[in-house]
Amino acid sequence: xxxxxxxxxxxxxxxxxxxxxxxxxxxxxxxxxxxxxxxxxxxxxxxxxxxxxxxxxxxxxxxxxxxxxxxxxxxxxxxxxxxxxxxxxxxxxxxxxxxxxxxxxxxxxxxxxxxxxxxxxxxxxxxxxxxxxxxxxxxxxxxxxxxxxxxxxxxxxxxxxxxxxxxxxxxxxxxxxxxxxxxxxxxxxxxxxxxxxxxxx
Length: 201
Description:
Elements: H1 2-14, H2 21-53, E1 62-65, E2 100-102, E3 107-114, E4 126-133, E5 142-148, E6 156-163, E7 169-178, E8 187-196
Parallel strand pairs: 2-8
Antiparallel strand pairs: 1-3, 3-6, 4-5, 4-7, 7-8
Helix pairs in contact: 1-2
């Protein structure tokens, strides 16, 4: 648009050599105004394109039940800071203290939030919940839930009944959001601390 606007004005000027100074000044003013307007419009469009094409580099998963390690501030907003944890296995958050007590074989409702959607139709990711021995946090987890991602929007809550296995002791309940999205981090992490065995008082 800038190129064609400039060419039109220049050609018109060369075909009119007898313009008086005031008309010439008016023409140049109009030309500059048109150029600046076109340039600003192009810059705005370019900025919007850049904003929409820069890939997201944040993690977006929150664990509500059992409560995740750390806080849960502003989780009603997409991209909340407390839902941005990337480091395996627990996003870099340490043991929070008193674990939630559960009995072996007990049915328990796990609730987590897709804080920001990273769904891709061509290669859907998934959510996974596993139990890891607390004294071996880098060890192999025992998966108790797996759920395929969908086009559900950001801030969607998911709840599922899971059965606590006969694995007594202090355990880490780890939730993961595996995106399979090349424009997002591969895996997002959250952890909660639980104790499987007789109720702790």
